[in-house]
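Running log. JK asked me to keep both predictions on one page so they can be read side by side. First protein, sequence followed by its tokens:
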Amino acid sequence: MQSVITLSEERMKKTITSLKEGFAALRTGRASVSLFDKIRVEYYGDKSPLNQVANISIPEARLVVIQPFDKGLIGEIEKAVRSSELSLNPSNDGKVIRIAIPPLTEERRKELVKVAKNQAEQSRVAVRNIRRDGNEELKKLLKEGTITEDQESKNTLDLQKLTDSYISKVNQILEEKNKEIMEV
């Protein structure tokens, strides 16, 4: 049986990974391939991830070039990018799609900071919920007689320390993202 602490830590790591993925999709005024991770393109009746039907490159800090593997997909890719929540305006020359990443306005930066704070708060709540689940599991093990009161007490303390460290990681990741968003 894996320990409650180990299982809780694995779940907390997944929460951090999920937060980082969410932050990667936030547009910061700088071109990034990860901006396009959630975009799906209609391809032979299926919705395929953009990076599986095209090559995405960043030749300059504020320019993205998308080169479809199949030239017939240009219209679909352009449509998918336009309809995404990224608010980008792609243009194509028949071979590649170019997307200029406009600098963010001060107002848009503040909105993105709010979105980032909200995502971070959801991650903190998830970490606390994992702690609660772990504590309930420890109480159940104590009731069953699988662990002693001392073990339950020690594990509860360890779980709290683990929770504190992951909440701190969430805060650190949020701080870094806020700096990235607010830099001009």
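And the second, directly underneath as requested:
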Amino acid sequence: MRIIDFKAMGARIRSQRELLGYTREQLAERLEVSSKFCSDIELGIKGMSLNTLAKLSDILHLSTDFILFGEQDADAAKADALLQMINQCPPCHRGELTVIIQAFLKAVSDES
């Protein structure tokens, strides 16, 4: 039987929230909970309902298994987070984003 480590779960949630650029208040608003409750979840003080877990999974683009137990391919989680950030970029600026990514990839390939 697997046991949920609420502090570790909260740390995973906070890490992904920060990676996606959400404030705690923004996440709480999207989850339709208070900022205090969101803080308590991130600190491992409180658990959450299945409905909140499902919403959190959708908002943060994480599997429920990863949120609860930390079981997910780390590279897949990072790729999902990058995709979410790209999707947040207004379509009119995606050309510039492409140029930035291409410059970054060239710079890191030149290091090799």
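Observation for JK regarding the second prediction: The chain has a mean pLDDT of 90.
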